[in-house]
Write a structure and sequence with these properties.
eight-stranded mixed β-sheet; 3 helices; globular
């Protein structure tokens, strides 16, 4: 599996309600692949704002880094991952879809995948129907039905975001995921994050999902 460069390009500041001071973690800028005419700088054009409400214990914060795939002069995709992980894929398609993959180099079976389907209505409708059961019949009526995964657990955080755990038989890794959907009158949005880790690293997966659910789409700065 090939690697794509991610170099430290500053810090991300985190403000937690339980602490009086602002915490910093390294910010890594990803050099993605862009298949359209516009290729943005991999660096943010200005300092990123302070992120609020992210809970990282002081004893644990030295393990984490923030990763940014810059998409323009005003937004990008921001995610949290262990700072020793590698970026193996960061592609932006001509249709505006984005896919980012990262892995633990010490154990490639431990990895994450982030997906934004972009402006593709059919892609969004199919994914929404598969992960939001209340929308399944609607997706089928639109002609974009997809198979529903077998959930071990599933919790709707609000009408737009769901967290889940997939049911697997006798596999070494568990799949933890979250998805975001928004339906407008003439558009649909869908993003998702899935993380595969052994059961003993479930808390790491949850920390990453908690970060995602606060910024499940593009990160405007």
């Amino acid at each position: 599996m090939s690697k794509q460069p991610a170099v430290q390009c500053g810090v991300l500041k985190l403000e937690q309600s339980s602490e009086k001071r602002i915490k910093q973690i390294p910010l890594y800028c990803i050099s993605g692949k862009f298949y359209g005419e516009y290729i943005p700088s991999n660096l943010p054009h200005k300092e990123l704002p302070v992120i609020q409400g992210i809970s990282l214990p002081s004893s644990d914060s030295t393990r984490w880094g923030a990763y940014l795939l810059n998409e323009s002069s005003t937004y990008g995709y921001l995610m949290l991952a262990p700072r020793h992980w590698e970026v193996t894929l960061a592609d932006t398609g001509m249709d505006g879809s984005v896919k980012i993959e990262m892995r633990d180099p010490a154990d490639p079976g431990i990895h994450m995948t982030y997906l934004d389907v972009g402006p593709c209505m059919g892609c969004a409708i199919g994914k929404i129907g598969s992960l939001f059961p209340a929308k399944k019949k609607w997706a089928e009526e639109q002609g974009f039905a997809e198979d529903t995964p077998v959930f071990k657990s599933r919790v709707e955080l609000n009408e737009h975001i769901v967290q889940y755990r997939l049911k697997k038989d006798a596999e070494a890794y568990e799949t933890y995921g979250a998805a975001f959907q928004y339906l407008g009158q003439s558009n649909a949005m869908f993003t998702m994050l899935e993380i595969e880790v052994p059961a003993e690293k479930a808390q790491d997966a949850q920390t990453m999902l908690d970060f995602y659910t606060r910024n499940p789409g593009t990160f405007v700065y």
